[in-house]
Amino acid sequence: MKKVIFLFVFSSFFVFSEVKFENGFDLRLREEYLGNIFEPRGREDDNYFRIKASLWGKWNFNQNNTIFIRFSGEPRFYLERDGLIARNRYRSEDEFIFENIYFEFKKIYNSKFDFKIGRQDFLYQYGEGFVIMDGTPGDGSRTFYFDAIKTTYHFNEKDSIDFIFYYHPKEDYMPVINDNEKVLRNSNERGIIIYGKLNPLKNLSLEPYYIFKHQEEYKPNPSEIIPELDFNTIGIRNVYNFDPWKLRGEIAYQWGEYNGGNDKSAFGGYAFLTRSFKEARFSPSIEIGYSYLSGDKPSTTKDEGWDPVFSRWPWWSELMLYYYLYDGEIAKWTNLNGWRTSLNLNLSKNTILSLYYNYLRANEPKPVFNLGIKGKERGHVPQLILKHKFTDYLSSHLWIEYFIPGDYYPDNHKNSLFLRWELSFKF
């Protein structure tokens, strides 16, 4: 099998007229402040800089065949040492890793097939990240990659289907500078993804998908063991544009079995309605939507809790990522029903202001460690996101969230604040 793949790569790359090389350097500077999030755990606020630097190169062997490599690192510098994230450090001992390294072949031998093998990102390639976004949740937003083989078949210019096989070890298996054995995922995992992108009508798009995931046993915290699990996710996303309105939604069902015989059966989805006012000043748009993720019922042996599959990222909120520690695992979106309203304003050609208000509840009460059963109200989360593009090479954003916790959390929990500013350079 390895010889076949090697011969395929070798023969494909040597059908070229001239090799073109591109390269660049990206720098992302962030400061993040987390106030009162971990205070009930006896920790102070966190305040730190994150500096991500990436060097990349791309070899274009012809119009359809390329090699891409990105090498990155993201050290952190802590302004407060007593926070849960800082852990009494002045700076992190960060690694420098191969963030991407892949071979890509389009229209293989003038066919309708594309082929891509290696370490690659799926950022916003599959819907809005409800089930597929981040393949490496253990390092935050440092990387998002999947180690995968992806084959795409194009029915025509608009319709296609992807077949993906992925294998994800718990830690990076490629060469790492200053290797700190960073845990990228809960456990070793592997599986397949089949994802269609169809446009049956002019204003309607459909994205049906199936995902199989095998994950090995792991411990999310010292007092809990999650057995080995095989589970399936089947779903569909749709977007219908009837200007100035847009309706989008997604629905999915999960089933599977843990090692030991316990079944898994879960359900999730969302729906959002948007109204745009393009001719008005600032071209505003307003949106209202609802999301539902099933929760595990304490009265049964079956696991009814939704699993985010590959979406342990700020899908709903940056602050709420950390509050899921009370459910057992950070950023494991589950047991949620929430309403969201938003207002988007184009203040200028290069400046966008987005305002959100979220009201979140749990579907099932849950024991919060040793604090007993609480209520079902998670709380209120207003958000402000301001984005500005200075030039083609320099952009920025300001991100503010404020969380007012409900009775799902400990009585002594104060309101919390998340604040981040960012400058992003591309050279």
List keywords for this structure.
two-stranded antiparallel sheet; mainly beta; 18-stranded antiparallel β-barrel; single chain; 2 helices; 427 residues
Structural class: mainly beta
Counting H and I runs of at least 4 residues, what is the number of helices? 2
Cα end-to-end separation: 40 Å
Number of separate strands:
21
Strand content: over 45%
Average pLDDT, all residues: 91
Largest sheet: 18 strands, antiparallel, barrel
Ranges where pLDDT stays below 50 over 5 or more residues in a row are 1-10
Q: Which word captures the global form?
A: globular
Order of helices and strands: HEEEEEEEEEEEEEEEEHEEEEE
- Rg calc: 22 Å
- Percent of residues in helical segments? under 10%
**Based on the structure, what is the oligomeric state of the protein chains?**
single chain
Notes on the structure:
The protein is 4% helix and 52% strand. With 427 residues, the chain is mainly beta. The strands form two sheets. It has an 18-stranded antiparallel β-barrel. The chain has a two-stranded antiparallel sheet with strand order 11-12. β7 and β8 (160-168) form a beta hairpin. The longest helix is centred in the first third of the chain and has 12 residues, at 2-13. The chain starts with a helix and ends with a strand.
